[in-house]
Amino acid sequence: MSENTALYAFEKYGDMVLRTAYVFAGNFHEAEDITQEIFLKLHSSPQDFQSDEHMKAWLIRASVNHCKNYRKSARISKTSHIDEALENTLSCEFSEKDNEIRERIEKLPEKYSLVIYLHYFEGYSIKEIASVLGKNENTVGSLLRRGRAKLKIELEKEGYAYET
User: Fold this and answer.
1) What pLDDT is stored for residue 160 in this prediction?
2) How far is CA 101 from CA 31, 45, 75, 97, 152, in A?
């Protein structure tokens, strides 16, 4: 897998990386650029992965880190509000309801939005999230509970009803 690691990773996880970048960048075109940068980096500096799950975890971490850098960059402040509004109408394979919930998740502090995204959109367990993020399982569990509670409050403000 060493010579074709980037190609293999792109074919297997390209959509997941794009979705992750879109969720955290909030902009489809930037998510595409971030995705491309991640796979170019992997191609130019191949990594040794122990398994496909290790590769997936590395790609998620790289996506989140690239998005953090994107948010810090001057580039984000130069985007006009009209351009953002148009670009955010793109769904990136999320349903309309998913997009509404994704927007609410995106407004949460990053420590909550990240664990909620990884758990509900990517299907990671608390143990797997702890491994990906390098955090204690109890910490991840607490972040997930607190994030869900904050998300529930925000969704209830918007008129969503929850069954307990």
Assistant:
1) 67
2) 18, 36, 26, 6, 10
Could you state, in order of their start, the residue ranges of all structural domains in the chain? 1-93, 95-164
Confirm whether pTM is higher than 0.70.
no
CATH number of 95-164: 1.10.10.10
* Domain 1-93 annotated CATH 1.10.1740: yes
Q: What was the pLDDT predicted at 159?
A: 72
Q: To which residue do tokens 């509900």 refer?
A: 120
Give SS3 for 163. coil
pLDDT single digits (tens) 106-129: 788 888 988 888 888 888 889 888
| C-alpha distance from residue 149 to each of 94, 115, 142, 153, 162 (Å) | 23, 13, 11, 6, 11
